């Protein structure tokens, strides 16, 4: 398969996924997901570089105020394990759009808030 055939296949797949959404609107969603994945991956890498292993990362939540503060002070944001992009991917076919809504809500909520 050459580059042109690959590009055509990718474009065809994108058209199928976006269904009735206009291409310009779809772009906004995809870029948002790409950015959220970047933030999630960056936090995981940061934690791995600071003596967290995969088991500890899987326990990272808003309830752990020390970890939240540490990550926020260094990265400027915090994402709980349940809201990481990689957690969504690992759920595979059980993915629900509610994950996105809940994650974005938690991401924009001020820390210490019980909303």
TrEMBL record:
<dbReference type="Pfam" id="PF12161">
    <property type="entry name" value="HsdM_N"/>
</dbReference>
<keyword id="KW-0680">Restriction system</keyword>
<dbReference type="GO" id="GO:0009307">
    <property type="term" value="P:DNA restriction-modification system"/>
</dbReference>
<protein>
    <recommendedName>
        <fullName>N6 adenine-specific DNA methyltransferase N-terminal domain-containing protein</fullName>
    </recommendedName>
</protein>
<feature type="domain" description="N6 adenine-specific DNA methyltransferase N-terminal">
    <location>
        <begin position="6"/>
        <end position="90"/>
    </location>
</feature>
<dbReference type="InterPro" id="IPR029063">
    <property type="entry name" value="SAM-dependent_MTases_sf"/>
</dbReference>
<comment type="similarity">
    <text>Belongs to the N(4)/N(6)-methyltransferase family.</text>
</comment>
<dbReference type="InterPro" id="IPR038333">
    <property type="entry name" value="T1MK-like_N_sf"/>
</dbReference>
<dbReference type="InterPro" id="IPR022749">
    <property type="entry name" value="D12N6_MeTrfase_N"/>
</dbReference>
């Amino acid at each position: 398969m050459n580059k042109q055939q690959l590009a055509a296949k990718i474009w065809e797949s994108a058209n199928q996924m976006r269904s009735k959404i206009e291409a310009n609107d779809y772009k906004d969603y995809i870029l948002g997901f790409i950015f959220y994945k970047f933030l999630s991956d960056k936090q995981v890498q940061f934690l791995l570089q600071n003596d967290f292993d995969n088991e500890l990362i899987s326990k990272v939540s808003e309830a752990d105020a020390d970890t939240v503060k540490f990550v926020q002070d260094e990265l400027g944001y915090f994402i709980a394990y349940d809201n990481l992009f990689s957690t969504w991917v690992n759920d595979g076919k059980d993915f629900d759009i509610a994950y996105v809504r809940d994650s974005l809500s938690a991401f924009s909520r001020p820390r210490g808030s019980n909303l």
